[in-house]
Structures are given as C-alpha cells and as structure tokens.
Amino acid sequence: MIIGIDIGSTITKAVSVEDGKMIRRIKTRAADAVTSAAGALGKMILENDIPMGDIERIMITGAGATKIKTDLFGIPTEPVDEITAIGIGGMFLSKQDTIIITNIGTGTAIIEAKGSSISHLGGSGVGGGTILGLAKKLLPTAHFNGIMDLAKSGNLNQVDLLLEDIMETDLSFLNKEATASNFGKMLDTARYEDLAMGILNLVYQVIGIISVFAAKSKNLDRVVVTGNGSKNPLGRHILSTITGVYAVAFEYPQYAEYTTAIGAGLSSPRRP
Q: Domain spanning 87-155+191-257: which superfamily?
C-alpha cells in the first residue's frame, strides 16, 4: 500500500493506493505542514484500521511538502513535484492522456499532461484564497458556506458593469449580457448577496478565460477541472457560460479535489 499526501496551505488530503487504484481518502486541517501530514496519516490509519506494516511508502506533495525533512513514523517518505502530481492525478481521474488541467486551490495552476510529459503552462493567483480574502473585507462572513449562501441570491447587475450598460449592440462574439468590467458598476444599492456573487464571478471568470486560452493554444476543446474549487456549484455555472461563448468544455471528474494526492500516490519512487 502507498499513501499519497497533498499538504495544502489550508487543507491536507491523503489517499491510499493499491495496485494502481485509489482505495481510501481523507481530509484534515492543521496549523503547520508537519502536523498536517502526521495528522492525515494518523487519521487514515486509525479510521481504516490499517496496520503500519502494510504501508510500503508515503509520497508527499503540495505547498507544505518541502517542510517534511524525514520519514514519517519510520515509513520511507518521498517528495513528489506538485505539478507532476496534478498531471498524473488528472490523467488518472479523467481517463485521458492528453489534457489541460485547471487545478483550483488557494490559487490556480494550469497544467498540460500528455502521457509521461507534464508541463506547467502557467496560472493565476486568483483562486479560493481570493474568495476568502475579499469576503473578509466585503462580506459579514468569510466562511465558505456563508459566502455561498449569500451568493445564491446575488444580482450581478448591482455589481458588474455589463456590455449592455455601455453599448446598444453585441460586441464581436459577446452578447450584451457579457461582463465588461468586474465590480465596474458597484451601485449604492448593492447588497451583501450581490457582492458575494460578484466575488465568485470575478474569480471563476478569470480562471475560465485563462483556461480557455490554454486549451486553445494546444488545439484542445476540453479542460479538466480539479482541486477544491472544482466542487463549487456556482463556479461551475459561471464556467458553463464561458463554454457557451468559447466552445471549450469544462469537465469535473469524481474525487477531483483529491487529484494531487492521488497523483502523488501513483508516482514512481526515486531510484538511488
């Protein structure tokens, strides 16, 4: 058995891999990387009654992986490049070997995966961290569920400047309802609900557009979305409107939030 651990800046995920298949998965939170990794491993072992001797090795990746300098609990522990882990995990979950992967976490990374060739195309500092950070200053809550509850009844017309606000006709391939400027209107009548929806729209439009550019640059018409941000239903709706304009589809494989941990678990260990 191999344990793959993705030590993120806010959430740590772990999966167990056996015979090239993901068997178990868990999430945990902690204040530092070492505590997160140890906690995730302990939770995996205790909740699933796994004997320590059954674990062949631990593969770690993510923002906190560089802070793990020794083996965990005496089990051989090796780091895996995060981009490589996302690529391997994305191909595994999507069952495709030539894909663009948009991994939405605290920020956003865009990866091209083609079999054994995995490359980082770029990305953006805009992601889940942006949503939470802006919410702290603009909304009465900075908790994800509270932000989503507000955004569900938000009206973008109160916040965003639309093409119809400045033009009487469509512009190129964009209709009059398209966003001309995120937060470019900001009416005095805007409610917290409208601001919450404006924040989500800003983040997912940026992510969607850079994903489209990446896909089109590689002559592809699909993007596999992974990471915690892949689960956001309002975010998915925003991305679907981008699909309608640019004809690039966004796909959400099952267990997409565990992509990086899965990729780590499936990675081959380094040879001495």
A: ATPase, nucleotide binding domain (3.30.420.40)
